[in-house]
Amino acid sequence: MVICKREVVFSRVRWALIIAVAVGWAMATPAMAVKLVMSCGTGDFATEVCLEATQQWEEQTGHTVEHHIGTYLTSLNLGMFQQLLAAQSTDLDILQIDVIWPGMLHHHLLDLRPYLPPDELGAFLPALIANNTAPDGSVVALPQFTDVGMLYYRKDLLEQYGHAPPSTWDELERVATDILNRHPDPLLEGFLWQGKPYEGLTCNALEWIASQGGGSILDSQGRVTVNNPQAIAALERATRWIGTITPYWVLHAVEEDTRRAFHRGHAIFMRNWPYVWHLIQTDESPVQGKVGIMPLPKAEGVRGSHVGALGGWSLAVNRYSKHPQESVDLIRHLTSYSSQVWRIQEASLLPTRIQAYQDEAFVSYPFYQQVAPILHHAIARPSLQSGFKYNRVSKKFWNAVSLVLQGQQSAAASLQALETELNQILEAPSIAH
């Protein structure tokens, strides 16, 4: 785990200036200053944004923050958090948690309600606060930014070869195949996505299945529904992509692997998250100005629908932290209106505060006008239904999908076995971690 540490030293003159500009935030003297330890992303671009935003708070308050940078495999980060919290460790004050983790971690997270002004929670998108609310009514995290799976495509290549953006998976296959057959670049790939057996594959496969009308693994009552003809057809389609419009290396790829290849101009289509947009629009990007975004395709027929996996990250405070007040102060800063507007401009990260969607920085940026409708197609993973067991449910799901994609098992056989395994997990007594 990488550790980034900043020490801030203030002169008396600088203190006078900071007091004048840091309206609304509690000020610390050198004698009162504390050091907080915070998880801050997985070493990607969002981590850089996290570090910079945290530095702003350090300069305003005189406190310091030590950052723990996790791995891109979020399931490993979750395991580390579970071990620390189960031991009631005070080593970590603030946790950056995935949208699917509150149900697994809430017993060890601080209830933020007593630390917040009465109107604070109402400023956020209601669905995100509901996601971060424990069964006992405690609010255990503030949403930092939200995400949704979407399709990136090369506008220039589609125009060059006379194709409209694809609305269905069949259309995507036809367009990708045609361009690959006619384009001279041997390095060009058709469709990139995240196929490594990890949480990212759960997101991708959920999108395929739901877009086919096959549900979302579990229904709203927590019953296993994944073994159905629509889900089988969705996985069979994705398997056909491998070696045709999708390269074999995608079976080992995570978000940044696919982003880098698309960024270099080596793909026609890519499924990824909104953060990619900012990176491919820099002056150094070979595809600057050549990329469009749209909802992910749907299956043909009346049951098909456009969907994208709901993602995002929230900030929570360790219930065992020695500095709960300062920790809450920091996460309020990082989720504040001004911080979210700053992230809109600097990182293409979707805000979680209602007011930010009316801000000029959002309204005037064409990218966000295209993303907003895609958010309406977001589908949640079954983390609330499965609670503490979600990680086991998801791992079983992504492993079953991976076996199909690698040609080791048929979709029908894999989903039938998965149904049995998930029922065994969900019927077993719950044990809180």
What does this structure look like?
The protein has helices at residues 12-21, 45-61, 74-86, 102-105, 126-131, 155-160, 169-182, 199-211, 229-241, 255-263, 275-280, 324-334, 337-347, 360-363, 366-375, 383-386, 390-405, 411-427, and strands spanning 2-5, 35-39, 64-69, 94-98, 142-148, 150-154, 189-192, 267-272, 291-294, 308-317, 378-379. With 433 residues, the chain is α/β, with parallel strands linked by helices. The strands form three sheets. Strands 4, 5, 10 and 11 form a four-stranded mixed β-sheet that branches. Helix 8 (199-211) crosses helix 17 (390-405). The longest helix has 17 residues, at 45-61. The protein is globular.
Backbone CA Rg: 22 Å
User: In CATH, what is the homologous superfamily of the largest domain?
Assistant: Periplasmic binding protein-like II
Compute the number of structural domains: 2
Low-pLDDT windows of residues: 1-30
Shape designation = globular
Count of DSSP E strands? Answer: 11
CATH architecture of the largest domain: 3-Layer(aba) Sandwich
Helix run count: 18
Largest beta-sheet characterization: 4 strands, mixed
**Succession of helices and strands:** EHEHEHEHHEEHHEHHHEHEEHHHHEHHH
Helix content: 40-55%
Which structural class is indicated by helix and strand composition?
Answer: alpha/beta
